[in-house]
Write a structure and sequence with these properties.
The structure holds two protein chains of two kinds. Chain A is of the alpha+beta class. Chain A contains 17 helices and 25 strands. In chain A, strands 4, 5, 6, 7, 8, 11, 12, 13, 14, 15 and 16 form an eleven-stranded mixed sheet that branches. Chain A is globular and about 95 Å long. By secondary structure, chain B is α+β, with helices and mostly antiparallel strands. Chain B contains 17 helices and 14 strands. In chain B, the strands form five sheets. In chain B, strands 1-5-2 form a three-stranded antiparallel sheet, sandwiched between helices. In chain B, strands 6-10-11 form a three-stranded mixed sheet, with helices on both faces. In chain B, strand 3 and strand 4 form a beta hairpin. The radius of gyration of chain B is 44 Å and the shape is elongated. The chains are: A alpha+beta, B alpha+beta. The interface between A and B is large, with 92 and 99 residues.
Chain lengths: 558, 454
């Protein structure tokens, strides 16, 4: 679940309302986000275990209250203060959902073009989408928010930049039209964006080296493997061959956004076109608020050319994908368990950014009236009528729903294996054994070598947390022995008895469950240990006798 | 009866008002260790043979250094005398050290300089006396006074400033000693009769029980530990929840399957293949056996189609569905993987779909960083209801019934998100002791994209 940190006072300023912490918590609850933490820059630094600052450094940090808000993982429109405040205002009825407008024609058609050298980009990062925001006004807060939104999207939807990477640029510092190409690393030369104003130029290969080794750039190191070994690196250029960005690693310094930037050029390169459009639409929706004509954006035409310079594919972005979806009123009421009339239901849709909604007559009397909603570009999470129903339920308020219980009677039942296990647990516990619950994962050493057994097949993990948890146990014994190891201070004088009834996993290439063969199966085992002044074989022997008696298994002569 | 006991009791035998006024003095004269006296007294007091009043006294003891001063004089006077004897020439450090000894020199010189009885020449490092005659050796006198004071009564023989100075030089330390006045108790007798702690078989057979005195039962202490075995607390909770769910008509699912296919764990639940939870840093993937050998193929195709192009009223995810990704084996991250299989079986059973309620409580595995409240392995409680015309209201009602049975009656529901349920709700319960709302569960209605392909 992504967490977005926003300044409390800025949030209230955006909302045009103030709340006590408790009141805001309630609002968040009803809406479906969570006020996870109330902190400040200084508090964060004081709590940090990794960075210890001096009293003086701490006193320079801000005391401004920050709300850390958890938002659902599928709501990309809530990843910045603009998005959160806008959605809350709509929810409260303080504003209508904005209509995002893609202008018919860009103000300068000539430069609003992106040519994609398909044969090259197809090898490494096939797609690009783009947009222009005109006459934007940035201040420090908006700038920070703009950067953080890109970080959030990169982390979540873009799956650490592997699927989509966002590049934002100052349009006035470069000259369109633009090209998206992929070139040999050594042929790409530019000054990358840095925190300091070094101005040092690199070629593509040297830059990857630099990011892999420099401690100051270690935040970029994880992305290097995405393109490093490719013979061609993706690159976005303007008409003068100035490098705007080297996706998904870094932007160029020349085109960097500053507080004075007025016109923003956005490009998103990707391996997944659907997601690229969602990402672009999200960035545009969030920040077009600050354009001179609010919620408007200029299109860019993307042309894919082949080696013969012919256009083989073309589209205009951003799509600001809006569509109409329908759900039957009856379905919504029945799924949520409410009884709302069609007209009020249409009004509820406005609260959750599904407006404007209207009621259509149904196809037949059985179905009843249908509600048609407008799904804006910011709601890419709407996949099916159930999504609409949920949002209407949220608008109505989950805690206003009448509670009912399903009508059908069913009969409860235990799994026989668990039933047997529970019966035996009771008996063995009565016999003076202490039950333990041990890890299912252990080391190869503990599972075999430490028990003086040869290493045989076991299910092993490809990404264990550490060597202690690299295989799934094939025997319960190591767990119990480890318990003894950790309890040497206990008194063993009267005999110390442990037991466990639980599963182990054995590789098995033939075991079938639900028409599926995964290659392993669980086996339920009983294991008990006795430790005392003597090794007490007869004690464990006695337990085995007891278990067999309970299971009505008589001893047999060989 | 021990010697110490008899010594004390005899000392009190003279009459009803007999006392031992000072246990310490008594210990000295009787040549018995005082701690023994105290211990025995307490034991006698428990049986009311004696009564005991506690007092304490404070006095100063002299350390070894102090004893040396009493004998030889304080270090500063000795140093000063050596310097006076050396006259105008004074003494260099090594000479002074050999004259009075290294330790004496160190302390003595420091104090001399402090008292301005000597001065140090900065250039040559030599020390010379600043006075022609040594003053009175006050420290030696004070310590001697303390030493000569009557035993245990030397706290008032000097003025406070002197005590402070001597304490600062660690020459004396204050000692507190407890001593007791011992008198007769209500059950006094010149000889102690031991009471029996318990009735024995031997006493019964021999008849001794008729004349033996027995100790009173002590109800202020704990009895003997019951012993026996124990069941694990987490598994006891599990047993309680199993019982409750079966009372509610839920049937237990067979969850003895830790190694699962990504297909059942994620894909059949309509969790997209690009979802972050499928990353190596959240899920444990299997090295050996790495890939699922087979899945029900017809169903697989329907799941794939739903992800790629949608259907049944959904627009799907519109991204490529990779077989390789679906066939990755893992340790299940939730028991919902089993729930999915149960629903698949329910949808395809002979006779067609029949309403059902299922539950499970079993182990799941997640690659999370471990801390005081998180392990890689933990247990999940899961329940589901499959029926016609179910609503969110039914879900709320079912959840409320369950929680009411474990004593949580105040619940609130918050909109949430899961890839495989819509609508989804987080369940919050009011904790009466912590006095706050705490998240206690997650729930939802399974998405049609998950159910339709089944």
């Amino acid at each position: 679940m992504p967490t977005v940190g926003v300044s409390r006072d800025a949030l209230f300023a955006h909302l045009g309302r103030t709340y006590t912490d408790h009141e805001f918590d309630e609002l968040a609850f009803e809406f479906g986000v969570e006020l996870d933490e109330i902190t400040s820059e200084r508090k964060e630094a004081t709590k940090s275990a990794t960075v210890k600052l001096s009293k003086e450094q701490l006193s320079q940090l801000s005391d401004e209250v920050i709300y850390k808000i958890d938002v659902p993982a599928n709501r990309y429109d809530l990843l910045c203060i603009e998005g959160i405040s806008r959605s809350l205002k709509i929810f409260l009825g303080d504003m209508d959902a904005p209509t995002y407008k893609v202008l018919e024609k860009p103000s300068d058609e000539a430069i609003s073009q992106m040519t994609v050298i398909k044969s090259n980009t197809d090898t490494i990062r096939p797609y690009v989408v783009s947009a222009i925001l005109r006459d934007v006004t940035f201040d420090e807060a908006r700038y920070q928010s703009f950067i953080e939104l890109q970080d959030q999207l990169h982390r979540n939807l873009c799956r650490q930049r592997t699927l989509v990477a966002i590049g934002t640029h100052d349009l006035d510092e470069v000259k369109g039209p633009f090209t998206y190409d992929a070139r040999p690393p050594k042929d790409i030369n530019f000054v990358p964006l840095t925190h300091t104003d070094e101005g040092r130029e690199f070629d593509g290969a040297a830059l990857m080296e630099h990011y892999e080794t420099e401690a100051a750039c270690k935040h970029l190191k994880p992305y290097v493997p995405i393109i490093k070994d490719s013979p061609l690196y993706p690159v976005v250029l303007d008409s003068e061959e100035t490098v705007l960005s080297l996706p998904p690693i870094i932007n160029g310094s020349k085109s960097r956004i500053t507080l004075n930037t007025k016109n923003v050029f956005i490009e998103c390169t990707a391996t997944d076109l659907t997601k690229a459009n969602i990402v672009l639409d999200t960035v545009v929706a969030m920040f077009s608020e600050y354009a001179a004509v609010p919620f408007s954006v200029e299109p860019v035409t993307v042309n894919y050319v082949n080696e013969a310079k012919e256009v083989v594919n073309s589209y205009v972005t951003p799509q600001m994908y809006t569509r109409k979806e329908t759900a039957s009123v009856k379905f919504v009421n029945s799924l949520i368990g409410i009884d709302v009339d069609p007209e009020p239901m249409a009004t509820l849709c406005n609260k959750v950014q599904l407006g404007p909604a209207r009621i259509l007559p149904g196809n037949d009397d059985e179905e009843g009236p249908i509600i048609e909603v407008t799904v804006p570009a910011t709601r890419s999470d709407i996949l099916h009528a159930v999504d609409i129903a949920e949002d209407i339920g949220i608008a109505h308020g989950y805690n206003n729903i009448t509670k009912t219980v399903p009508q059908t009677c069913t009969v409860g039942r235990e799994q026989p294996l668990n039933q047997l296990g529970d019966l035996l647990r009771e008996e063995i516990g009565r016999g003076g054994y202490v039950e333990v619950l041990t890890h299912g994962l252990c080391s190869t050493h503990d599972n075999f070598t430490a028990l003086k057994r040869p290493i045989t097949a076991a299910v092993s993990l490809s990404n264990p947390a550490n060597v202690e948890y690299e295989v799934v146990r094939t025997t319960l014994l190591p767990g119990l022995l480890k318990c003894l190891q950790h309890n040497k201070s206990m008194s063993f004088a009267g005999g110390f008895k442990l037991f466990e009834i639980s599963d182990v996993v054995i590789p098995d290439g033939e075991h079938v469950v639900t028409e599926t063969i995964v290659g392993a199966r669980n086996v339920r085992k009983v294991c008990a240990t006795y430790s005392g002044p003597t090794s007490g074989f007869e004690v464990i022997h006695g337990l085995v006798d007891r278990i067999m008696t309970l299971c009505e298994v008589a001893p047999q002569a060989d | 009866m021990s010697d110490v006991e008899s010594a004390i009791l005899s000392a009190l035998s003279s009459g009803a008002d007999a006392t031992i006024p000072d246990s310490f003095a008594f210990a000295t004269t009787s040549k018995i260790d005082h701690n023994s006296i105290v211990g025995t007294c307490k034991s006698l007091q428990a049986d009311a043979y004696v009564s005991v009043a506690e007092h304490s006294t404070q006095f100063y003891t002299l350390g070894k250094e102090a004893a040396n001063i009493v004998q030889d004089g304080s270090q500063e006077i000795r140093v000063l005398n050596a310097l006076i004897a050396a006259g105008e020439a004074g003494l260099a450090m090594p000479e002074l050290q050999s004259a009075v000894g290294k330790d004496v020199c160190k302390i003595g010189m420091g104090n001399c300089l402090k008292n301005k009885w000597a001065k140090k020449d900065k250039a040559s490092g030599k020390l010379t006396a600043a006075v022609s005659e040594a003053p009175k050796d006050e420290v030696k006198e004070q310590l001697t006074t303390l030493k000569d004071a009557p035993e245990g009564e030397n706290t008032k023989v000097l003025d406070d400033k002197a005590y402070t100075a001597l304490k600062r030089r660690k020459l004396i330390s204050l000692v507190t000693r407890k001593f007791y006045t011992i008198g007769r108790g209500p059950s006094y007798a010149p000889q102690r009769v031991k009471k029996a702690a318990d009735l024995t078989h031997e006493m019964l057979t021999s008849g001794k029980w008729k004349t033996t005195q027995f100790k009173e039962y002590n109800f202020q202490t704990l009895g003997e530990s019951v012993g026996g075995g124990y069941l694990h607390p987490l598994l006891k909770v599990r047993a309680e929840f199993r019982k409750i769910l079966m009372e509610m008509g839920f049937e237990e699912m067979p969850t003895n399957k830790w190694v699962e296919s990504s297909f059942w764990n994620f894909d059949s639940l309509f969790q997209p293949q690009s979802h972050p939870a499928r990353d190596a840093h959240d899920t444990f993937f299997i090295k050996e056996p790495a890939a699922t050998a087979s899945v029900p193929e017809d169903y697989y195709e329907r799941v794939k189609s739903m992800h790629e192009i949608g259907g049944s009223g959904s627009i799907g995810y519109r991204t490529v569905f990779e077989r390789q990704e679906a066939m990755k084996n893992l340790l299940r991250t939730h028991t919902t993987a089993v729930s999915s299989q149960m629903l698949y079986k329910l949808a395809n059973r002979e006779g067609g779909f029949k309403p059902a309620r299922y539950f499970s409580i079993d182990r799941v595995f997640r690659n999370e960083s471990m801390d005081a409240t998180h392990l890689c392995e933990f247990h999940q409680v899961e329940g589901l209801v499959a029926d016609y015309n179910l609503s969110l209201g039914d879900l709320i009602g079912t959840i409320e019934t369950f929680f009411r049975k474990i004593g949580i009656t105040q619940l609130r529901f918050k909109p949430a998100f899961n890839p495989y349920t819509e609508p989804s709700m987080e369940v919050f319960g009011y904790h009466p002791d912590l006095k706050k709302w705490t998240e206690i569960g997650n729930s939802g209605m399974f998405r049609p994209e998950m159910l339709a392909p089944m």
